[in-house]
Write a structure and sequence with these properties.
34% of the residues lie in helices and 27% in strands. It contains eight helices and 15 strands. The longest helix has 39 residues. It is globular, with a radius of gyration of 24 Å.
Length: 372
């Protein structure tokens, strides 16, 4: 693609994001996204870029405000210190060159505001009140833990035992294994604010876990069971599909909208999500708080999505992150030597079984996920 074509494509992407295309153009562009993975990825990456630029602008504004407050307090004599060291030196230099700095700050402020306005005009608007994430709140859930949980993604866990530690778990949702050594998938919104994570299987066994990868943009998280009580599994009965399923094809879900596993069944409604979001697909299935992070299976027993949200203004309009984004997260953690050899199966051994037999084979590998 030459420079002119790239510029024209970026212009089309921005008009698509801003909603400036007429219905025919939008339909054509959405069909192009479905058939051209490179263009679809360009839309996702451009959206992420704009969000990051906007966050940068907000941070710059915040730091400028803090600096102004600090300077004002210093001038009033409420902050004291040696002007030749540390923060006091910064204040001294600020006073000396405040006129030049004021001009520079004004220019920077105008630039930031203009850039922020541009970003907000072309970025997708945040999910409205019509969209409800499907993790459930817990009033008081005190559980003793024997492990301190790290809250940092992509780092080694803290394995120092603390047998007397009691955790107040505030949220519960669902997760499922993607390998036999304890790697699990759930939604990023389920665990992103949790310092301590514990997972529970249908037998009542509970295990400590930690975050390995947090992909907030795609709402995908990889967590890992880190508990000597967990026994590795030779092979999972289901595989992870790299592509979506057909519209109207039957699907089913397993999750924890309450403290026992719940089965739901329905069908694929659309290959895109809320307002044409291509990160997700729409399914018609019963879903309640607690279903977030749960697997969505096709009739062959393959995971085709991660259940994440529902539309409150439409009956059974439920959204699932497409399973292909699980592989994006896996590719990222493979950059870490500890996870370099991870192999996730795309093959299911459940094809041809009836639903009862499929669920019996699957349910041991679907967990309730609790976080504080």
């Amino acid at each position: 693609m030459n420079d002119n074509n790239e510029i024209m494509m970026l212009d089309a992407v921005e008009r698509y994001i801003r909603g400036e295309m007429n219905p025919d153009e939008r339909l054509h562009f959405e069909n192009l996204r479905k058939t051209n993975a490179a263009i679809d990825q360009l839309v996702v990456e451009h959206t992420l870029f704009m969000q990051q630029v906007n966050q940068f602008g907000e941070r710059k504004n915040f730091k400028t405000s803090l600096h102004d407050v600090h300077t004002d307090l210093s001038e009033q004599g409420k902050i004291h210190g040696d002007k030749l060291s540390g923060k006091a030196k910064v204040v001294y230099l600020w006073k000396r060159y405040r006129r030049v700095a004021a001009i520079a700050a004004s220019i920077a402020g105008i630039t930031t505001i203009a850039l922020s306005s541009l970003v907000w005009s072309i970025s997708p608007k945040p999910a409205s009140e019509e969209i409800q994430k499907l993790n459930r709140d817990l009033f008081v859930q005190q559980v003793k833990t024997d492990l301190i949980q790290s809250d940092l993604a992509d780092v080694k866990k803290n394995s120092k035992p603390d047998a007397d530690k009691t955790i107040d778990y505030k949220t519960a949702a669902t997760g499922f294994l993607i390998d036999g050594k304890g790697l699990m998938i759930t939604n990023a919104h389920v665990v992103r604010k949790s310092k301590n994570i514990r997972v529970f299987n249908i037998k009542g066994q509970q295990f400590n876990a930690f975050v390995v990868k947090l992909d907030v943009l795609r709402d995908v998280a990889i967590i890992k069971i880190d508990d000597t009580r967990f026994k590795p599994i030779a092979a999972l009965p289901y595989g992870i599909a790299k592509s979506s399923t057909d519209i109207a094809e039957p699907i089913f879900t397993l999750g924890f909208p309450r403290d026992e596993i719940v089965y739901g069944e329905g069908y694929m409604s659309a290959k895109t999500g809320y307002k044409g979001d291509t990160l997700s697909c729409q399914i018609a299935v019963p879903a309640n708080p607690g279903n977030s992070g749960g697997p969505v299976f096709n009739q062959r027993g393959e995971v085709i999505g991660i259940l994440s949200a529902r539309q409150t203004t439409a009956e059974e309009a439920v959204f699932a992150i497409q399973s292909k984004y699980i592989f994006n997260a896996i590719d990222e953690i493979k950059k870490n030597d500890e996870y370099r050899n991870i192999k996730v199966s795309t093959r299911s051994t459940l094809a041809g079984m009836n639903k009862v037999e499929q669920v019996k084979k699957i349910q041991d590998y679907v967990f309730m996920v609790k976080g504080d």
